[in-house]
Amino acid sequence: MLREGDGGTALDLAVRCGTAEAVRQLLVLGAADVTTICGMLPPGEFMHARVLHIARGSVWSPATHHLWPPAFKAAARALLLALARDVGDAGSEGGDDGSAAGANLACLPAPLLLRVLQLAAAPMSTWVGADGEGWPATIAMSTNRAVQLHEHSIKSPSSACSIGDAPVPTPAQGEVLVRIHLRPVNPADVFSIQGVYPGFTPGGKFPCTPGLEGVCTVVSNGPGASKFAAGQRVVGAPFSTIQGGSGTWQQYMAVAEATLVAVPDAVSDDAAAQFWINPVTVYGMFEVLAVPRGEWLLQTAAGSVLGRQMVQLCRARGIKTINVVRRLELAAELKELGADEVVVNGSGERLVDRVKELTGGRGAYAAVECIGGDMFAQVASAVRASGTAIIYGAMSGLSASFSIPDPLFRDGEALRLPVEERERVCQAVLGLLADGTITPYSGQHFPLDQAAEAVKLAGAAARGGKVLLED
């Protein structure tokens, strides 16, 4: 039981023990005079933006609360007090003791309370207007930090990225409001920023937000949506929303419930954030190619995240791989993952000759290719008669004797994932991630507001794994 005299430590105790009773008691203490809390800070500092801005670059959670400075803790508590008072004024018939206000506040969704605590690290202007109006309860989720494009840029995609605020969407019929926590910087995201990716076509509507995937938690369900509970981790494929210019490089999205999949506890955030673009693609190509056990699969860009996961899956299924890379130092890394053969492009060794030598003159059973340019012709010549080569990217250019986007987005329906197969494939891929058959290859994490720096690093040859944006 918390006592009123414990006001200075109530927040600490509540988040430390995490019990419903402790949280309820903390909220009941919302009746305390806010000036009492302000008195914990040096004179005049509570209204100073620096106090509320002090931990802007961090993400609050109960596990990290003890690391935050006393000024932040007091500011967070003051926000809770103000929110409790506002809720009481709006709908409570309780007396001055504030018990009814605390009870009402306790009924608010947990994500809203979390957002209030996060707002304690934001400038005062974020939640109090210049005219003095705007209580936290009415605007606690009105801020949606987003990476915004005001133009496309072919030559310098990083310079096109800026950070701004967008409205928090309201979930419509059959939609779910999600909070995105972690998202990768994929080559397709860079193509989106450049304005050449057919899966991101905002039609000149700026500002727009890129981002094809990420791991989220459910905030609330719209009408007719009930499959997922608030706080549940999910990943989604809301590609129609993303194509229109509202991608995952923001804090909140409203997406169709049917596009979401629950993330098992055994799958890390890093793995879940990279779920769709690489693991699902690997699994889909694997099924389409149907390479028999003991046969050879040829792949380019084998040092990429997708290439590494293809090596892991082929090894688990008894399929031999010939892996084309740009740098010799990647050979040892791929061998450790289970690669059978590694060919360094540009080393003077002809790819077709090497493949024929390894396969007894027959050629590879199948191939996956994402370089483009002249590489596709070499790959096609290295595949056996009646073999299959899949093009899934264009890392060196958008043509390979024909326009790559055309077959990928117009004539490639047979290689797209049918809706009725989505659940089966998703569960299969999540299982592979959960048991470690395929693993993420994660690199540096950047805060969302450093997206420009993240995009720069993502374009580097030796970046040390997939670059991710967190918030």
TrEMBL record:
<dbReference type="GO" id="GO:0016651">
    <property type="term" value="F:oxidoreductase activity, acting on NAD(P)H"/>
</dbReference>
<dbReference type="InterPro" id="IPR020843">
    <property type="entry name" value="ER"/>
</dbReference>
<keyword id="KW-0560">Oxidoreductase</keyword>
<dbReference type="InterPro" id="IPR011032">
    <property type="entry name" value="GroES-like_sf"/>
</dbReference>
<keyword id="KW-0521">NADP</keyword>
<feature type="domain" description="Enoyl reductase (ER)">
    <location>
        <begin position="156"/>
        <end position="469"/>
    </location>
</feature>
<dbReference type="InterPro" id="IPR013149">
    <property type="entry name" value="ADH-like_C"/>
</dbReference>
<dbReference type="InterPro" id="IPR013154">
    <property type="entry name" value="ADH-like_N"/>
</dbReference>
<dbReference type="Pfam" id="PF00107">
    <property type="entry name" value="ADH_zinc_N"/>
</dbReference>
<protein>
    <submittedName>
        <fullName>Trans-2-enoyl-mitochondrial</fullName>
    </submittedName>
</protein>
<dbReference type="InterPro" id="IPR036291">
    <property type="entry name" value="NAD(P)-bd_dom_sf"/>
</dbReference>
<dbReference type="Pfam" id="PF08240">
    <property type="entry name" value="ADH_N"/>
</dbReference>
<dbReference type="GO" id="GO:0070402">
    <property type="term" value="F:NADPH binding"/>
</dbReference>
